[in-house]
């Protein structure tokens, strides 16, 4: 089953938010989903400690030695396995990238994020070259305005397009609901519309991005 790694060397780029939004949305739609929380801070493991009834499974006790065994076990029983990676390059990251069917690289529209995303892309390509394998990846813009595209965002998009860097068509917008998921330890469907601003739009955004992810994964499976 598809293994989706979420990676970027920069902290705060939106790795854990991206992972949680996509995984819980898929699980809410009926898919069986596991998240391997490989971030040392374990933000998603903390979320799972709340009252959410979302069926997504979070496995946080994962290190370099146990990663392959755990990944193989989850892949045999789940339809999707997400790997939320820590920022620094490591043997664990190398193992995750090698086994990924798709790597998502979240970035905010900033020069620093773009620069470090380029490092992530080089790491992915180096890992693929080492094993004579093409590792598919997509850049995902996070915390963007759903209404206005800033000049800086346009400039970074132009650079990515010029370098023929593959990107998600949908962005993960800046929404209070995505932060509220961590605060209340609930999924988007469980949050209260009376307490969280813009929740319906956040749900629409999450669904559109999740549907795009499913399409990408299906296309890659057919190609394989």
UniProtKB/TrEMBL annotation:
Any one Pfam family match given in the protein's UniProt record, by short name: CbiA
CobQ/CobB/MinD/ParA nucleotide binding domain span: 4-166
Database matches in InterPro entries: CobQ/CobB/MinD/ParA_Nub-bd_dom, DNA_Partitioning_ATPase, P-loop_NTPase
Classification via SUPFAM superfamilies: P-loop containing nucleoside triphosphate hydrolases
This protein's name: ParA family protein
Species the sequence originates in: Rhizobium straminoryzae
